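Re: Re: token formats

Sure, here are both.
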Amino acid sequence: MKTNDISRREFLRRVGLGAAAVTAASIPGCSPSTQNKGPQGSETAEIPTDSMTTRHNPTTGDDVSLLGYGCMRWPTIEGDPDDKLDQEEINRLVDKAIAHGVNYFDTSPAYCKGRSEEATGIALSRHPRDSYYIATKLSNFSPSTWSREAGEQMYRNSLKNLRTDHIDYMLLHAVGMGGPDNLRSRYIDNGMLDFLLAEREAGRIRNLGFSYHGDIEVFDHLLAENDRYRWDFVQIQLNYVDWHHANAEYLYGELSKRGIPAVIMEPLLGGRLANVPDHIVARLKQREPQRSVASWAFRFAGTHPGVLTVLSGMTYMDHLEDNLRSFCPLQPLDDEEMQFLYDTADLMTKFPTIPCNDCKYCMPCPYGIDIPSILLHYNRCVNEGNVPAGMQDENYAQARRAFLVGYDRAVPGLRQASHCIGCGQCAPHCPQQINIPRELHRIDQYVETLKQA
């Protein structure tokens, strides 16, 4: 063990498990899971440290935690004008996750304004290297990074920032955005895919895959070339709304046919499945009053046997603890529960929310517009019933005021949708393929209608 590794006893003490948990774990028949304050998986239950559900990777033999840590939204220091990451809190979150069996950490050179890899590397390097798996990406979105030289430099920077000599799970990032031409420019014509394949052959990459966004033609092409590339895993968006209302069922099915493990992103659909409309909350709580609303989405994703891990961006400790309850261990959904969620999704799609997941790939806007905040404010008002269709609505005055006052609070005047000129620079970068200028103009027109009423 390295000198900067911490013992398990000290590790458990730091994350607040204490001597009692250590003692209980050492006595046969007396594990922390038997001392819960509520039913397993409930919001009041204590979380066992030895019950994380894992999935086996047939390529490298890894036993991967079904809950994976998405490192896209690490906590920042409150009030810091530059959104500096809170390394102490990141360390605490990582310690808690590892103590409870999480061993898959997914990051990227693009996350947290380029700071995620370094912060993740600092937190993880305090633990034995064989106790976790690192996933990162070649995030060469800009044409300035499409050269072979720039791509190799990005890859080597990842190794340095993550404080490791190998990457366990390496991804081509967001293939499908921009269609086949974009794929060829970023990975094929410049030889970067050949380079990554050689790195896998040399052992510095243990598993090679891609994260898919957008163009089905690209997805199908890469799978058709599986004999050549031998994809070890593929990252897709999957949740109970997208299963029938987008292409999640197709994507998962194509991977399952080929025996390729699926890594799941957006199980909460950008947080929207944790912040559902009140009548959906009531529906879910009536069925499972002890569980959180979000737990339904995580259990849905984890129930599919071809899923290797389900990523969640857990910025706060309560997010992490709630998700741990869903996977320590997982209680898979039965057929009747799955149909209940499909019916729930049908109800939810009647609400005209915009599929923004706050990834911020559309930013910065050259005209200073805060695109994610505008779209998220609109979605929040839809979910809360504060988007009145007309003055005949019973709660029109209250909803009108809530929308307008909330809009001014959420988005400064100079960054609101009224300043969009429709240049369209944002749209090609959106993984959800939102027609951003159209949505901004629609929201601006709606705001003007409310102001004039």
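Second one below.
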Amino acid sequence: MASISLKSTLLRAVLPAAIGIAVVVWLFAGDFNPDAWQQLRLTPRTVTGLVLAMIFVAGRDFGLTWRFRTITDGSLSWRRALRVDLMCAFTSAVTPSAVGGSALAVFYLNREGVDVGRATTLTLTTLLLDEMFFVVFCPLLVAVLPTDALFGSGGNTLLQGVQWVFWTVYAGIVVYSAILFTGIIARPEWVERAVDRLFALRWLLRWRPGAQRMTANMRQTAAWVRTRGPRWWMQVFGATTVSWFSRYFVVNALFWGFIPAASGLVVFGRQFVVWVVLMISPTPGGSGVSEWLFTNYYGDLVGSLSVALVIATVWRVLSYYIYLLAGVCLAPSYFQKKTSKQ
């Protein structure tokens, strides 16, 4: 990958930012209610909520930085692991959610001194950890939250659509996780044989070399992860859980500050749904879709779409726009010269 100029980096960041801002303006134009702003007075509680939200943003990055450092067995310093985390977040912000930042994690790890083969192995492992997080915690969430609380009630078409998309995407996550688990841990040779036979079909032959590289990487990953002990697995899954929970608690902190009457458990559970639905967003970083979905999905808890939109905007600034800014600052020097091992 060639060097990336500051101009190119800015252009990559402008499109998703413009989409998000345009949707926010459109939503404000349709849902603005001056009376609703009385609920948004700046008080010690709201300030505390904003501070807590920023702390949870830092918790998200701490969890992923900890995970990158742990899976490399400490060969990455905290600083270098944080750089990988921020660059992956930037990639996620400027690419469709279905692509995500993991696609370039191999490159970022390699830039930090990890050889390509090992970087591929580590990236596949992080993918498995993220998917397993959703597989493990979704049944727990459904067990403690009634369907009406999680998805809303009243026959709302939007909420019914959210529920349908959520379960469809979750089913895909389960299947994908099963493939990753089988290919990385349980029976990598099964996946390798199945993929090889599938891509031997005439209309799939052109993609066979890439599929064979993928299964070879899975086999390499399987050999490596089988050497890891229980303590290692507890650390990396713990770091994954800290990261995802921190993402969700950002919204909990905002609701605690602005809408304290809302159920914290319901707010948390709906964040789980939001992130699953956004996995198939066609826009860069879910821009536009995130703001619209948040405003309408949380509207019943807030009582006002105007207030919900303000909270959604603050949420996106903390969970999205700061990573666009970080990427704009880091990317030019990151791509133009070899990263120092600090």
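The mean pLDDT is 81. The chain has 14 helices and no strands.
- S.
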